[in-house]
Each structure stands twice: as C-alpha cells, then as structure tokens.
Amino acid sequence: MKGHSTSKASVLIVIGQVLTDPWLGITREGQFPTWLADAQALDVPVRHSHGLRSNALVGSLDRAHEWLRWHGRGRSLVPRIDGLMGRPWLDRKPKVKVGRFLEPGAVGWQQQLVDVYALQRWKIIGSFTQALTEDFTHAYFTTASSYVRIHGLIPVVDSLPMSEVYAGTPLTDAISGAHFASGANRIFSRDVIEAVVRERKHYRNDVMEDVGLGRLIHQMGIDLTPLTTVNVPSVQAVDSLTGEGILANFHFRTTSGDRYRRQDAQVMHALHARVIDLETRHGIRRA
C-alpha cells in the first residue's frame, strides 16, 4: 500500500550520460564544479550511466533514425520497424561495468550497448538493474543538461511516500495522450524500479523511452506525481529568476544554444552562484 514510513528516505542520483560532446563537456565543465560538488559534500551518491561510444557511421544512422521518426511517413514507419526489431530482445538486460567516470571518486556505469536513441529503453533497464545492487529508497534520474539543487531535492524526496512513487515533470504523449515524466527529471521509489525490471517484457520500444516507461508504470496502476522544472536557456535568464523561484525548485534545464554552441556549463555556473548566495542567506547551507 502506498504510504509514508518511519524509515528514513535515501536517494540515489543517476545521470544519463553520453560519451560525446557537447554532453560530456557540459558534465565536466558544468555539473562537476557546481551541483555535483554539493552532492559530494552531502554524501549523496551519484552514478553516471552511459553506453559505448558510437563511431561516425553509427552516429549518422542514429541522427537519420531520429529525423525520420519526426517527419513524414517516418512518424508511423519508424516505430513499427523499431517495435518489430526490438520485440525478441525486450527481456534482455545489458551487462554493466562499474568504474571511474571522468574524475577520481566519480562512479560510472558503462553499459554494453551503443549509446543511440533506438536503444535508450534498454539503457534504462540496465540502469534500473544496476541501481538495485545499491542501497536506496528512491532513485532520481536526470541528464547532463540539468542543474539539480541538492538542498531542494532532498526535502522533496523526504516528503514522498516510500512506495509506489513515480514523480517527475509531466508531459503528454501526442499520439496516445498518455501522461509521462520527462526523462530529465524523474523520481522512482525502489519498489517501482523492481516492478519495471520484473515486467520489462511489457516495456515498449516503439516510442521514446520516457513515454514507454510512463505507459508501463501507468498500467501498474501507479499515477504520476507532478514535479516542477525551470527552463533556463541563457546566462541572462539566470538573472531574471527570482530568489523565491530558485528556492522553490530543485530542477533546472540549462539547454542553451544549439548542439555546436551549447552554453549549459556557463548557465550552471551563473545559477550555482545565485544558489550559493540564496541558500547561505537563508541558512540552508553553511557559509
């Protein structure tokens, strides 16, 4: 039964990483010096989940696959092909190698699959399976282009039930109308992760991974608990945020610029400076 427990909540943070720029540079230059430093100071465990680096040919095919998915006849053809090709492999759990990620002390989960959009559903299954080897009550999944205010995340996790939790930024699937949580901002209780791994044969791959995951969890009878997110598309946008708005939220999307001129790291540093100032003045962190 869904409800609170007298046990203390503990959160495991899992960041979906890709071993190519701009994402790798954003993590190295933006996340590590800012909010990941806060996570380390508070002893909040963070795991960086990624697949194998793709070559130029695979990368080109991946981009073509995604372009077709959203254009013309590809809108219906690509999902059909993906579903047909993936059906025999829905039960597969990728093998995971645990090691270092970019910096000393940072833990990486290297999944034995190529990091392309068509395989993201399996990457989630691999992350869920590996997460269950660790001790936590809730797992928070986010991305390289996200800034997470750790002092805001922890109280949110503490306020959630200890079971049947599927929380995140709500989106709606344009085709089915189903509600699901954005892949950039999701919290799951441990029992939900266990259930998804157990019922993985019903986790479809003919839609984006977050859509398919939301559908599966909905079929389990678990509703989505909405969480807010703040989009911060530029350094200038950081200045326009109110102090109250920053302290009322914990997830910020820093998707700034196009693929070749991303400014996410600069946005994270500007936002982190404001977070430090606000949290210090409000007694949330030590000066």
Descriptive notes:
With 287 residues, the protein is an alpha/beta fold. Helix content is 40%, strand content 23%. The chain contains 11 helices and 11 strands. An 8-stranded mixed β-sheet has the order 3-4-2-1-5-8-7-9, with helices on both faces. It has a 3-stranded mixed β-sheet with strand order 6-11-10. Helix 1 runs parallel beside helix 11 (264-281) and helix 3 crosses helix 4 (74-86). The termini are far apart.
Short précis:
By secondary structure, this protein is α/β, with parallel strands linked by helices.
Per DSSP E runs of 2 or more residues, the count of β-strands stands at 11
Mean pLDDT: 92
- Examine the coordinates and then state which fold CATH places here, giving the name of the CATH topology: Spore Coat Polysaccharide Biosynthesis Protein SpsA, Chain A
The helical percent reads 25-40%
CATH class: Alpha Beta
What proportion of the residues form beta strands (DSSP E)? 15-25%
Instruction: Give the termini separation.
Output: 42 Å
Order of helices and strands: EHHEHHEEHEEHEEHHEEHHEH
As a whole number of angstroms, the C-alpha radius of gyration is 19 Å
How can the largest sheet be summarized? 8 strands, mixed
Strand-pairing-aware structural class? alpha/beta
Low-confidence stretches: none
**CATH architectural name:** Alpha-Beta Complex
Overall tally of structural domains: 1
Strand order, sheet with most strands: 3-4-2-1-5-8-7-9
Shape: globular
* Distinct helical segment count: 11
